[in-house]
TrEMBL record:
EC numbers, comma separated: 5.6.2.4
Higher taxonomy: Bacteria, Pseudomonadati, Bacteroidota, Flavobacteriia, Flavobacteriales
Binding site for ATP: 31-38
Keywords: ATP-binding, DNA-binding, Helicase, Hydrolase, Isomerase, Nucleotide-binding
Protein name as it appears in the record: DNA 3'-5' helicase
Domain annotation UvrD-like helicase ATP-binding: ranges: 10-295
PROSITE patterns associated with the record: UVRD_HELICASE_ATP_BIND, UVRD_HELICASE_CTER
Reactions performed catalytically: ATP + H2O = ADP + phosphate + H(+); Couples ATP hydrolysis with the unwinding of duplex DNA by translocating in the 3'-5' direction
Length: 780
């Protein structure tokens, strides 16, 4: 191989070159956002190849398939595509699904096992809960799945669960004493269906590597060089796989940033990064400090935020980039107005700077926030794409076609079967399906196998029904024959027609109905593209099972649509690793971001703060923080106050866009001297941007502007006050509970009526003066 690798290495700074050029041994690169970690991994792979390492011996694990694809493309440019295509590169799930196909028989699975997506898993769990006659309001299927998922990711198998009284007790305490039973049934049913769910792909890989030393040796020998991006977000199960595979050669290079660990809620374990040095001998640790992505303002503001976290590794991040613009902060009355602001700003920036839509991203904490943004973008005719909603492959009509195809490959696949056995309607009713399910459980067979011998067992079905079941079996078998002789595209088209799916959809002449048919066409095109891509790469005939695997593990982040000049809308979680010139972080409100569900402990709050750090560091040139004073949540209009994260950025980095005068209704209060010792002249210069009344004012607040920012512009609404404490009730010496500051002792009371204030010494936060009219206090 004749590669001019030096040209690429010279594009790295010295600190980046060091880990790139260390060929062997364990190493970890810990560095802040935008410092080139992913770039180092990419060039390092090319470097290894230039040093004679065979592409087949390199395994690179990335966070998304898209990241893997991009990395591969970049490496192809350096070493040529014929070499690069042999690299093992992808997400944990996609790589280990491939390995499990080769080894499935060892675990008792068929090599054509199905992969259940979350929808399939939830449906199966619901069915089990129903069969066991449990209360689905107590055993909420999604929650149960979450629990099972966390067991699997901690390698707690059903057996381990039943050997652990503590776990059982914990479930009993949370009113789910029969969770273990559901877990057991769920695992049995997946096994019987020849199916693995997402977590199984990791769990079963661990099982494979620990039970079969020869298999472990084989893959250790194959993956002599292992590289992991976003290492801070690996969970225990993933960690053990990496550990096992790298144990022999110890050529392991992981890169990550503890400050960007945002998946603890899903079991990611930040200790993986912290303990790396203990796990291997002679670990080389590298740090990168220069950020190439963002302006100085953004880098420094991000540093200021993460500095507030107690649990963190000390890191320096600086940039030689321009100072750039300040981070713009915008307040609006409602979420609708927030959307309009974002859309019109994008419109203006595009016009002013001649930019494409693809330069903009809108990031939010929860998917529900996308609606207001979408409405506003649509009104402005700005094309956008939402990532991470229902993926294309999860749409009903698409999943219906895919379910037939899954049955062709693996007729035992119960979820696929139940989905389509009577769709389009062919007279096989629910009670028949129930009888089949009971029989299948009884005989420990799949439903399809029961249907194959329906003549020989007595399920008390009439002959008409039996015929219908046999017809269904015959139809699926005829598809299997076609699959042996034709390519996947031909088969899929045949299935869509012969099952009656297309006719069924044609009955619906509404635009939605037409769109569904178009989606099926799009799926067929996708299959054609896939098999053509395969032919190019391997000269292989398009394999349906490979397509299905790709689809099962695809996220819509991975999908290249070609017409990508669109504004990107996604949750912050999905935005990890990506970068955009302009980034809007919307919904910067307390209870939304940080999320109300993540404020109970310091570690939860710190994870939210890391999430904010991730969001801000996606921006190259300009970041916007927007918030609304009220928004619809769960169908109700709720008031909100600005996120504490805005306050945590020093004002120096911020520019408030919303004019003060319009909204400032509390000015008289300053004149009424409620701010005690605060320097009033200073206060008046500050633009109020907050949405709540001045619930408290301290006499020694180091940041008076912070207090002002909590002022509520009333806009005709009454102040949202909490239960005011009747004057007579509160006396010095009372112990009180404040919603935000916690427990404290009343030292002193002053003023009368609406101006009555209490001086309170809080256990955390010291002495504060609160205006009783607004303070949310309970005497305890
Ligand atoms: P994150 O933590 O967000 O994943 P990262 O550390 O992986 O970030 P990269 O995405 O690799 O950072 O790099 C950030 C940006 O800086 C990219 O656009 C990359 O091309 C650019 N970059 C990295 N190193 C250099 C360099 N030495 N010279 C010029 N540009 C660079
Ligand atoms: Mg990266």
């Amino acid at each position: 191989m004749n590669i001019d690798i030096h040209k690429y290495i010279s594009q790295l700074n010295e600190a980046q070159q060091a880990p790139t050029l260390q060929k062997d041994g364990p190493m970890i690169v810990i560095a802040g956002a935008g410092s080139g970690k992913t770039r180092v991994l990419t060039i390092r792979i090319a470097y290894l190849m230039s040093q004679g390492v065979d592409a087949f011996n390199i395994l690179a694990l990335t966070f998304t398939n898209k990241a893997a694809k991009e990395m591969k493309k970049r490496i192809s440019e350096i070493v040529g595509s014929s070499e690069a295509k042999n690299l093992w590169m992808g997400t944990f799930h996609s790589i280990f699904a491939k390995i499990l196909r080769f080894e499935a028989d060892k675990l008792g699975f068929p090599s054509n096992f199905s992969i259940y997506d979350t929808q399939d898993s939830v449906r199966l769990i619901s069915a089990i809960i129903k069969e066991k006659q449990l209360d689905k309001d107590v055993y909420k299927p999604k929650q149960v799945l979450g629990r099972i998922s966390s067991y699997k990711n901690s390698l707690i198998t059903v057996k381990a669960y039943f050997n652990n009284p503590e776990l059982q007790e914990a479930d009993a305490m949370s009113k789910k004493p029969r969770l273990g039973e559901i877990y057991q049934e769920y695992v049995d049913r997946c096994f019987k269906s020849g199916a693995m769910d997402f977590d199984d792909l990791l769990l079963r890989t661990n099982e494979l590597l620990s039970r079969f030393p020869d298999v472990l040796m084989k893959y250790q020998d194959r993956f002599r060089y292992i590289l992991v991006d976003e290492y801070q977000d690996t969970n225990h199960s993933q960690y053990l796989i990496v550990r096992a595979l790298s144990d022999r050669f110890q050529n392991i290079c992981v890169v990550g940033d503890d400050a960007q660990s945002i998946y603890a809620f899903r079991g990611a374990n930040i200790n993986n990064i912290l303990n790396f040095q203990k796990d291997y001998d002679n670990v080389q640790m590298y740090r990168l400090e220069q950020n190439y992505r963002s302006s100085k303002n953004i880098v420094e503001a991000a540093n200021a935020i993460i500095d507030k976290n107690k649990t963190k590794l000390d890191k320096v991040v600086w940039t030689a980039n321009d100072e750039g613009h300040k981070i713009k902060v915008h307040r609006s009355l409602t979420d609708g107005e927030e959307g309009r602001f974002v859309a019109s700003t994008i419109f203006e920036e595009k016009m002013r700077n001649q930019l494409g839509n693809g330069k903009f991203a809108i990031l939010y904490r929860t998917n529900a926030q996308s609606r207001a943004m979408e409405d506003a973008l649509r009104k402005r005719d700005i094309p956008y794409r939402i990532y991470g909603g229902l993926s294309f492959y999860q749409r009903k009509e698409i999943k219906d076609v895919l379910s037939y195809l899954r049955l062709v490959i693996n007729p035992k696949d119960e979820e696929a079967l139940i989905r389509v056995i009577n769709y389009p309607a062919r007279g096989i009713g629910d009670s028949t399906v129930e009888k089949l399910t009971v029989a299948a459980n009884h005989y420990k067979r799949s439903i399809f196998e029961v249907m194959e011998v329906i003549d020989k067992i007595d399920l008390k079905l009439n002959s008409g029904t039996k015929n219908k079941l046999q017809d269904f079996v015959t139809m699926i078998k005829s598809f299997q024959i076609i699959n042996e002789n034709q390519d996947a595209f031909y088969l899929a088209e045949h299935v869509a027609k012969k099952t009656g799916l297309i006719q069924e959809l044609k009955k619906d002449a509404t635009p939605e109905g037409i769109a569904r048919i178009e989606n099926i066409e799009e799926l067929l095109n996708g299959i054609r593209d896939f098999i053509e891509g395969q032919r190019e790469v391997d000269g292989a005939r398009g394999a349906l099972s490979e397509f299905l695997e790709d689809v099962a593990l695809a996220t819509d982040l991975d999908k290249d649509t070609g017409d990508d000049d669109r504004v990107a809308l996604m949750t912050i979680h999905l935005a990890k690793g990506l970068e955009f010139p302009y980034v809007f972080i919307v919904g910067m409100e307390e209870d939304l971001f940080p999320s109300a569900m993540s404020m109970n402990t310091r570690s939860e709050l710190e994870e939210e703060r890391r999430l904010f750090y991730v969001a801000l560091t996606r921006a190259e040139h300009q970041a916007y923080l927007t918030y609304a004073q009220s928004r619809y949540r769960w169908g109700k209009l709720v008031d909100s106050e600005p996120s504490r994260f805005i306050e945590e950025i020093t004002d120096h980095f911020l520019e408030y866009l919303t004019p003060a005068e319009n909204n400032y209704r509390y000015k008289p209060m300053i004149d009424a001297d409620i701010f005690g010792d605060v320097d009033k002249s200073k206060l008046r210069q500050v633009k109020p941007t907050a949405s709540t009344p001045p619930a408290w004012v301290t006499s020694n607040d180091p940041k008076p502007d912070a207090a002002i920012r909590r002022l509520k512009p009333l806009e005709g609404r009454a102040p949202v006050s909490s239960t005011p404490i009747p004057d007579s009730k509160l006396v010095a010496g009372n112990i009180v509970m404040h919603e935000r500051f916690g427990k404290g002792e009343v030292l002193n009371l002053e003023g009368v009526g609406a101006d009555k204030k209490a001086e309170i010494r809080f256990e955390v936060g010291g002495i504060k003066k609160l205006l009783l009219r607004f303070a949310k206090l309970d005497v305890i």
